[in-house]
């Protein structure tokens, strides 16, 4: 399968209970992540993470699926045509 580039936005609305799980999942996909930028909003108990991910459609879907199963986590993905 052909590799694609995806921009993935992750909103963690329950940092105390979900943040470590999100980091573990991202760590497992570390070789496919080209850029990771995090913006903690501690006063609201929210964190936003932006990812540039390069992989197959199946790998992008697997990451989105694993993150999307977590309570307090919302994920949006956009595949770029490059």
Describe the 3D structure:
- With 82 residues, this protein is of the alpha+beta class.
- The protein has a single domain, classed as Alpha-Beta Plaits (2-Layer Sandwich).
- It has two helices and four strands; from the N terminus they run E-H-E-E-H-E.
- The chain has helices spanning 15-28, 57-68; strands at residues 4-12, 33-41, 46-55, 73-80.
- The chain has a four-stranded antiparallel beta sheet, with helices on one face.
- The protein is elongated.
- It comes from Tepiditoga spiralis.
- It holds the Pfam family TM1266-like.
Coarse structural class = alpha+beta
Mean pLDDT: 95
Count of domains = 1
* Number of helices, where a helix is a run of at least 4 consecutive DSSP H or I residues: 2
**What is the distance, rounded to the nearest whole angstrom, between the alpha carbons of the first and last residues?**
16 Å
CATH topology group: Alpha-Beta Plaits
CATH class: Alpha Beta
- Poorly predicted tracts of residues: none
Assigned CATH architecture: 2-Layer Sandwich
Calculate Rg over CA atoms.
12 Å
SSE string, helices as H and strands as E: EHEEHE
CATH superfamily: ACT-like. Chain A, domain 2
Strand order, biggest sheet?
2-3-1-4
Approximate shape: elongated
Strand content: 35-45%
């Amino acid at each position: 399968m052909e590799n694609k580039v995806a921009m993935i936005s992750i909103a963690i609305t329950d940092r105390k209970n979900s943040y470590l799980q999100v980091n573990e999942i991202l760590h497992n996909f570390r070789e496919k992540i080209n850029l990771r930028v995090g913006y903690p909003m501690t006063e609201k108990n929210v964190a936003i993470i932006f990812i540039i991910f390069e992989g197959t459609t199946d790998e992008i879907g697997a990451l989105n699926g694993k993150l999307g199963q977590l309570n307090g986590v919302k994920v949006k993905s956009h595949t770029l045509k490059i």
